[in-house]
Structure formats: C-alpha cells, structure tokens
C-alpha cells in the first residue's frame, strides 16, 4: 500500500534525516515506527502526507507517486489518511460532537450521515457521556480518543498516529493503544510512531526501528529494541 | 455554494459568536462606537444643512420701486426677473402693503405714525423681494437690476436696490457657509477613517486569536469557504447587533437634545430621529454589516493563503 523506494531526505548537506529508505507497508498492517527523537520518524510521516518532498527516491501510495500529485489531488490523498497528533489539534470552540461533525462536513457528508455516524464513533472510543463537552472540559486521554474518533470518521484507508501517547499517563496510553488495535482489527492500516517501550511491546506487531535516518531493524512481531 | 453549506456556515457563525463571548462583546463595543460616530456625523450634517438653508433664506435683495411706478409695469418687470436662471423666487409687495407693514412696525411710535398721517399720499413705493438659487449669485442679479435701472425696462421704475448695503454681510456669510461645509466634510472623513481602522484592528485581533483553529480546520480537510464563511457571518452578526445598540443609544440622546437644544439648533433632533428612524437604521445597519464583513474578509485572507 505504501512504498518507499531508495528515499533520502536531507534538509541541508550536514543534516540528513532519512537515508536510502526502502520499505513496503501492506494494507491491514499495524506498523510501529520507533526510534529516538530525530531518528526520522516524523519525516517519514511528513513524506507520506506530502508535507515534505524527498531529496531523492520516490514514495508511492498504491499506484500514486505522492510527490508528483497536483495540489488538488493532494487534498484528496489526505482525505484517505486519518492523522492523530500528540497535541490532539481539536477545535477548542466546538464540542466533541461538533469536532467530529466538522470533519464530516469538510468531507461533504450529509446531515443524516452526520447524525447517524457521530454517536457511533463516539461510542467506539467510549466518549458517549462526553458528547456535548468541549475539549477543555475533557482529560488528555479523552481528548486523544476524540482525536482518534475524528481521524477515523471518514473511513480512511490508513491511520497515522504520530506520538499519540506522548502526553498521556499509562492508563490512558493503554486505552489509546487498545482503540488503535481495534481499528486495525476492523481492517484499517495503522502507522504508529512512538518511543514508548510499553506501547510497542503491548501491540506485538511489526516494528520498524530507525536510527540516524536509517532502518536498523524490521521485525514481524517485534519488541522495542534500542 | 450549496444550500447545505450555507446553512452550516450560518449556524456555525452564530455559534462561534455566542461562544466567543468576550471577544464578540469587544467587537460589538468597538463597532458600536464607530457607528455612533457615523450617526453623529449624519446628525451634524443635518443640523449644518438645516442652518445653512435657514441662513440662506434670510439673505435676499430688495428692489424698491418709485412711487410713480404702476402695478402693471412692476409685475411685468417681476416676470422678467423670474426668467433669470439665477433667481429662485420673486415676491411682490404693493405700496399699500408696505405702508400697512410700516404702520404695524411703528404702531407704538406715535410721532412717526402722526407724521405719516400728515402726508396725503403714500410715501412708500412697492418692492420686489428677490431670492437667488445660490447666495453667490446675488452679485450678478444686482448687476442686472442696476443696468436695467439706467437703460432697459427698469428705467424710471426702480428707486434703489439694497444689495450694495447688504453686500458685505452676504459676502461674509457666503464664505462662512463654504468654510463650514468643507470643515464638516474634512472632520467627517477623518473621524470615519479613524473609527474604521480601530474596528478593523479589533476584528483582526479576534481572528488572530482563532488562527490555530483555522490551521486545524485546514488539516481536517475543510475548504477555504467552509473556514471563511463562519467568520463572515460573525462579522455580520456583530454589525447587526451594533446597529441596533447604536439606535437604542441615540433614542435618549436625541430626546435630551430635542428637549434642551431645539432652540439652539433651530430644529428638534428627536423629531428628526423619530421621523427618519428607518433611514437612519438602514445607514447604521449597512455601515455596520459592511464594516464587519470587510474586516473579517481582510483579516482571514492572511491565514488562508498558505
């Protein structure tokens, strides 16, 4: 589904953030990208989202060369990818319900679809009692679950979670990982970046370890080894 | 844009307006002040124009006829005056009317009345009262009359013209009127520009506070119109509320002015306010909504460019 072919990304000659990456991520996989800060995890994600261009090599999303797409097709591509951020990026003046409804409105969904889908997804992430709460009235874990709900509402083919548990305590971290696993069980590809050992070990799926811009390990049922 | 999009944008705009309570309040406050300035200027212009017309009305040129002039000839001369493009109106006062007026004016002055009664004939001639379209034109009207005194249809008809005596007053008045008008316009312009800039900056600040939100909306995949729309609706709501508040503020204000300053201005502001309520409201409503919408549009443009 996602293919990195000999990808190198250098911001300038002295700082190479990815070097000669070859990688295939198949549909339905749960991939954990691990590594220290600055290992290149976030750069890989930015390449998939077309926020950055590779210095060398190509990145494909199925048959599309991501970095040769015109800008309106990039918007379409991004709609096929749901993203969860470490700092949640929720709309502060909208309730939980409205945050999700807004993502559906942006995707051009009808009011009927919004009315039927939003309660479902809120139930999926266990936020039904918080339907009409604003983000500032929710805990960190609840906010991240809401962000995940927003990321999956338009049924993307991939969920990218960039350090989703960075701001959470162990219990909330566990819950978020469980939700991501559940989403993956339903058939969505999940790419998770983290440097939390517990998270990686509890998932027990494919682990790609990055170090100084290179892939140093790629284990089918991996553990966090650095 | 589809009906669904419009409905969502309007709903979201109203919600944002009520949820950003303090920021909305600040925007309404500043917009109200601007609208108050605009409405005050409207009133000022009305007072100024009213005073100007009143003063203009008081200026005229009187042509005193000789006592021998017959009424037919005077009326013929009157109609020839009326054909001049500079002349707004000419009123005729017969010798008898002039006498009656004179007697009325000096009714308490026994000596004068007695002296008048000693005379068998009416010593006063008829008079023509000429009003010009513009105070500037009295000069040319007076010239016309003066030339016709020596040769033309006015010969032997006209005793004297009082223009030369009034000239100084008329000239001074004309220049004061012009000055007042220019000054009024200048002050208006400066005040409006200042208040518009202040309002624009307040609304820009309100949108600046939401810049992160705008970024998130883009991230979620919202189109520019979906992001821009609610802010424009917010600007509109702010304009409408400010217009209503402004009209409410001016009710007691003009009531007080009407009660206390009607004699000073020569007109009752409160009556003017009531009889032109709809037009005045339209002025502040259109100004308020335009101000809100244009400020929002300009302010948000910056965050949608990237």
Characterise the protein shown here.
The complex is a heterodimer of chains A (226) and B (306). Chain A has 226 residues and is of the alpha/beta class. Chain A is 35% helix and 28% strand. Chain A is globular, with a radius of gyration of 17 Å. Chain B is α+β, with helices and mostly antiparallel strands and 306 residues long. Chain B has 11 helices and 4 strands, in the order H-H-E-H-E-H-H-E-H-E-H-H-H-H-H. Chain B has a 4-stranded antiparallel beta sheet. In chain B, helix 9 packs antiparallel against helix 11. Chain B is elongated and about 105 Å long. The mean pLDDT of chain B is 82. Classes of the chains: A alpha/beta (226), B alpha+beta (306). At the A-B interface, helix 2 and helix 3 of A face helix 1 and helix 8 of B.
Write the layout of secondary structure elements.
The complex is a heterodimer of chains A (226) and B (306).
Chain A: E1 2-12, E2 15-25, E3 30-34, H1 41-48, E4 56-61, E5 64-65, H2 71-79, E6 81-85, H3 96-106, H4 111-124, H5 140-152, E7 158-162, H6 170-185, E8 189-194, H7 197-203, E9 206-211, E10 214-219
Parallel strand pairs in A: 3-8, 3-9, 6-7, 7-8
Antiparallel strand pairs in A: 1-2, 1-4, 4-5, 9-10
Helix pairs in contact in A: 3-4, 3-5, 5-6
Chain B: H1 3-19, H2 21-58, E1 61-65, H3 71-82, E2 87-93, H4 95-105, H5 110-118, E3 127-132, H6 138-150, E4 158-161, H7 163-209, H8 211-220, H9 224-265, H10 269-275, H11 277-304
Antiparallel strand pairs in B: 1-3, 1-4, 2-3
Helix pairs in contact in B: 1-9, 2-7, 2-9, 2-11, 7-11, 9-10, 9-11
């Amino acid at each position: 589904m996602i293919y990195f072919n000999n990808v190198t990304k250098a911001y300038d000659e002295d700082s190479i953030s990815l070097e000669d990456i070859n990688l295939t991520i198949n549909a339905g996989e749960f991939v954990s990208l691990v590594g220290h800060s600055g290992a290149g995890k976030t750069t890989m994600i930015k390449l998939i989202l077309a926020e950055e261009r590779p210095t060398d090599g190509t990145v494909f999303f199925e048959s599309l060369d991501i970095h040769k797409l015109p800008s309106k097709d990039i918007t379409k591509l991004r709609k096929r990818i749901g993203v969860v951020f470490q700092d949640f990026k929720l709309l502060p003046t909208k309730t939980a319900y409205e945050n999700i409804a807004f993502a559906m409105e942006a995707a051009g969904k009808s009011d009927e679809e919004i009315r039927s889908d939003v309660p479902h997804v809120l139930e999926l992430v266990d936020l039904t009692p918080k339907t009409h709460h604003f983000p500032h009235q929710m805990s960190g874990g609840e906010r991240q679950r809401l962000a995940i709900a927003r990321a999956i509402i338009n049924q993307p083919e991939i969920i990218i979670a960039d350090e989703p548990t960075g701001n959470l305590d162990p219990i909330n971290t566990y819950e978020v990982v469980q939700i991501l696993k559940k989403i993956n069980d339903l058939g969505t590809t999940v790419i998770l970046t983290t440097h939390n050992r517990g998270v990686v070990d509890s998932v027990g799926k494919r682990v790609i370890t990055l170090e100084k811009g290179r892939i140093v390990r790629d284990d089918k049922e991996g553990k966090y080894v650095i | 844009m589809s009906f669904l999009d419009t409905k969502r944008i309007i709903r979201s705009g109203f919600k944002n307006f009520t949820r950003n309570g303090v920021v909305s309040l600040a925007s309404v406050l500043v917009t109200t002040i601007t609208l108050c300035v605009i409405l005050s200027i409207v009133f000022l212009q009305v007072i100024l124009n009213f005073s100007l017309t009143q003063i203009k009305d008081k200026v005229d040129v009187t042509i005193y006829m000789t006592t021998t002039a017959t009424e037919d000839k005077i009326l013929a001369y009157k109609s020839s005056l009326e054909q001049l493009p500079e002349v707004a109106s000419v009123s005729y006062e017969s010798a008898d009317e002039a006498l009656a007026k004179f007697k009325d004016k000096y009714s308490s002055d026994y000596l004068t009345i007695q002296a008048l009664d000693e005379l068998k004939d009416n010593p006063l001639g008829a008079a023509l009262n000429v009003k010009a379209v513009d105070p500037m034109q009295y000069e040319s009207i007076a010239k016309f009359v003066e030339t016709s005194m020596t040769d033309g249809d006015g010969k032997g008809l006209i005793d004297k013209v009082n223009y030369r005596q009034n000239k100084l007053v008329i000239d001074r008045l004309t220049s004061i009127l012009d000055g007042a008008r220019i000054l009024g316009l200048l002050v208006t312009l400066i005040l409006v520009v200042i208040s518009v800039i202040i309002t624009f900056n307040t609304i820009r600040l309100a949108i600046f506070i939401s810049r992160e939100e705008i970024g998130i909306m883009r991230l979620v995949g919202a189109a520019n119109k979906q992001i821009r729309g609610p802010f424009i609706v917010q600007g509109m709501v702010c304009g409408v509320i400010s217009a209503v508040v402004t009209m409410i503020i001016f009710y007691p204000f003009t009531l007080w002015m009407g009660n206390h300053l009607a004699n000073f201005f020569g007109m009752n502001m409160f009556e003017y306010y009531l009889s032109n309520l709809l037009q005045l409201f339209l002025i502040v409503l259109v100004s308020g909504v335009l101000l809100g919408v244009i400020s929002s549009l300009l302010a948000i443009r910056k965050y949608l460019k990237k």
